[in-house]
Specification:
Blueprint (H helix, E strand, L loop, with lengths): L1 E6 L15 E2 L2 E2 L5 E5 L2 E7 L14 H10 L4 E10 L8 E9 L21 H14 L4 E8 L8 H7 L5 E3 L2 H10 L3 E11 L10 H9 L2 H9 L6
Parallel strand pairs: 1-5, 1-6, 6-10, 7-8, 8-9
Antiparallel strand pairs: 2-3, 4-5, 6-9, 7-10
Length: 234
Amino acid sequence: MKIGVIAGSVLPADETGFPPPLETDFGPTSSGILRMNAGPHDLLIISRHGVPPNIPPHMVNHRANVRSLMEAGAECLISICSTGALHSGMRVPGLTIPRDYIDLFSGATFHDGDIFHATPAIDGDILSALARSSRKVAPHTTEGTVYVQTRGPRLETRAEVRLLSEWGDVVGMNMGPEATLASELGMRFGAILTVDNYANGVVDEALDFRDILDRAKMNWPLLLRVLSLLPERF
C-alpha cells in the first residue's frame, strides 16, 4: 500500500535522503518525496519543515505538500506531528492517535476560486490500525484524543492553554491544515501524535523549544516501526 507521510520535528536534522522540492501549482513543496519501504508498505515521505529544517510552522506550504503526495499515488495520508499535552494526566513522552481536531483559523483550502464546503474527518479505519500497531511498540499509546491547531511559530500563552484545554487534549501547529486539505482531495487521513511536552502552564516546568525538538527527534525509529506494523490493507 502506498502511504503518504508528512513528518516534521521527528525527522533527524541531518536527513540527507530527500530529493529537492517539487514545483506545483501551489508553489514548491517543503521537500521532495523520499520513498521508503516499511513492512508491506511503500512510504512517500515529505519533510514538513524542509531539508535542512528551516521552514517555520506558519510558512509551511501545506497545499503543495498534500497535493504532491496525492499525485504521487498515495492512497491515504498519515501526518506525524509533535504536540504538547493540555492536561497533566497525559503521559509525557507518549504517543496518541487522535479521533478529531479543531482548526478554526488556518483557513486551509484548495478552493480559493470557487465555493466548496468540505466535511473533514479522521478516518476510523486508519485510527484503529494506527492504535493497534502503536501499542505493539508503545503499550501506553492512547487513542480518541482531540488535537487543537494553533498557528505558531510561538508557543501558547498560559491563558490560551487554559482555554484550549476545554476544547481538546493536545496542541500543535500543523496537523489541522493537512487533515482538511486531504479531505478536500478525497484522501483518507489519520495521524500519529508524539506528546513531547506539557503545554505552557500545565505543570510547573519551564518550556525550552530546543528540548522539545530533541525529544521529538528521538521518536523517529519508533514511528517507522509503527508504520511497518500496519496491516497490508486498512
